[in-house]
Amino acid sequence: MPNVMSFTVLPALPECIKDLDLIARNMFWTWNPEFVELFKRIDSTLWSACGHNPVEFLGNVAQLKLEALAENQGFICELQRAVEKLNSYLNAPTWFEKVCSISNEPIIAYFSAEFGVHECLPIYAGGLGILAGDHLKSASDLGVPLVGVGLLYQKGYFRQYLSIDGWQQEVYLENDFYNKPIELVRKDSGRPLTISVEYPGRCVVAQVWCVSVGRVKLYLLDTNVAANSLGDRMITSSLYGGDRELRIRQEIMLGIGGLKALTAMGISPTVCHMNEGHAAFMALERIRELRNDQNMTFDEAVEAVRAGNVFTMHTLIKAGLDEFSVELMDKYFGSYFPHLGINRKRFLALGRILPDDDDEPFKMPVLAIQLSSYVNGVSKLHGQISREMWGSLWPRVPTNEVPIISVTNGIHVRNWLSDEMDSLYQRYLGPNWFDETTDASVWETIEQVPDEEIWRTHQRCKEQLIVFARKRLKAQMQRRGTYHTELNQAEEVLDPDALTIGFARRFVSYKRGDLLLRDPQRLVKLLSDQNRPIQIIFAGKAHPKDTAGKDIIRQIIHFATQYNVQRRLVFLEDYDMDVAKALICGVDIWLSCPRRPMEASGTSGMKAAVNGVLNMSTLDGWWCEGYTPDIGWVIGAGERYEDNDYQDRVESQAVYNLLENEVIPLYYKRSADNLPRAWIRKVKNSIKWIAPKFSTHRMVAEYTRRFYNLAATRWQYLNADAMTKAKAFAQWKSDMRKAWPDFAVKDVIMEVKNGNGAEPLNPKKPQLKVGSQLSVRALVKLGAVTPNDVSVELYHGPIDTWGNIKDSSAVRMDYKETSGKSGEHWFSGRMNCAKTGQHGAAVRVLPRHTDLVNPYELGLILWEKAN
Fold this sequence. Notes:
six-stranded parallel beta sheet; 29 helices; alpha/beta
């Protein structure tokens, strides 16, 4: 092989339009339509041909055209306005500066295995990455001091095409990063910055790339460098590809390498946010760094690190929960855990539900949970299911008190809005409506939009979708070698006047992309109705190894052919952000039918709603919080079934019934001026209800207030004064764990207080009247531990048929006095009896310390024992 000298060729932009490169290299353009129009104005055909990639686009514009633009004063003025808007945006006061008064500004490091910022940077697979991209954009808009950390996949996620039989095929295309809006991070010398991560028997080198997303920087690690072996260069080859060994290599690079990269760039994160468990090894590296820099024990470093870690879990599907065999953990961490100052057994216990089960794999979500102070699900229902699913990590803690809370996902509204709807909102909500996305009063103004205008706006989007779909279908048919006469069919599919349903998402069994196919005759009748037809557009990918998901796609293709409904039922290949935006802007109904409770959140329906599309979904994920009868439809009533096939039959019938009896009649019911005014009323209700509640502006602000600021303050507090507070806290925990086995609730005395005074509660006939008060005294043995180090609580509430307390409340009991015996203390508390029925009460003891984020951190809880 010859010795190849590499160099980068840049477009030769005339001086007066050189700022085009500045605009192209900040992804701010992705959520500002006027910036996109600037590129399209140069050459709209080339813009599409370049996949909406401004860097590649500028490199392919003819030099003569660039020179002509330099003479075009109108274009130069538009470019100057764009530059001024970007600079003003980057330097304007932010929400974070106004609202969050933290003396030392924190740095939030947001780790994710994928980021969906734009289709021209295809390093995302689906919802997790799209959410991460929207998270960065809202963090930028709000001024949250956040940096993203991920991997730069040479081939990204696979590109999808279907065989003639409808079977999904995968192809991986090389990304040319030097022709994308992304730049290498370089040292002062100009050479690329690299970091080194230890793997078995060698070190793997990674270079770091940077994507500017408004005010936020996204750093991506790339192992495709000459210093690595061919196998190690493949670590960042593709997203979610390969076997378990490749996956652990990737996650080591993401977590450990990601933190090393930040350190190498002089970025010291205050808070580290793990978006799913893929990045959980980061927490181990954070512990290792602290031990190395501050001479701390493992337990001391854990307290400091846990204080600054946040973990968001997304999936309930086993295949989506990464776990690694003991053999793989030994291979890749056998030389690592000694640097943590712990033995193998304790190291493996960090990733196990049952620490003593030698056969249990190492689970990444468990590692993330155990090394984070703040853990959340991504919808209220998901938080509830997660508490049930992971509750065993907190033994004897009631499920409703398991410290996993909910922060419901959202969308970056401006990013997913059609240009037409954006223009409509600017006219009626005001030119700065986007700055007040979360203000419900702003969205009330949607009532002022004339029905005619909102309908015409949506119809234009629908017409654009149909043009888009026909063009894409024609390209699909040409690739398959379809006869020329059949290509004309692509020009006739879909009808802009027909009720259009969109179903686009990852094809996996629980999302039930085939639910509408359960009763073919009934569906064909709906599709073929000459007076009130419906049409359906499908899109989505199945994981390369998911044959069940691939088969659902094949069934859809076969259905359209078998029943000759290709004009009304189409499948768009290679679902990406571009296809997604066309769909969510142009369909009339967004159909989502996951099998409850498998959908953690889902966000596509939110994107559809802000574009004037109505949702029809099962009561799962975000729709449990979003649904009201006047904004959309619900499939079923949120029932849980043990028989999946029976559930599918029942809920498919529910979909047909909704379509036949409610959705279709409402859509086709027209006033004298041919407007579906009742439908439009529902659209307006949907927009004003969903838009302010389900945005990433709300979501990121919630993360900031509930997690980031608290975690940053606690991190700074525990790390102050050479880690003395962290060390003291770790010592207190150690002392508490040693003393806990000797604790006991020795005696509990209950008295009833009413208008006649107080009397002991009769154990044979324990009855109280509404309005009376139950007074409780408890004698608790604490040994050498002081009463200030515990919280003795009266736990009470209604009880179910099994004798368990539900809808519980806990009242902290007051310390009263030390009993005659050393180390035993009396506590007292009371509860009011406000409701009739069967109730229960019990005394419990929990650790108490000002530095505890929640009282269950230690996994210690003592309940009074039955006599």
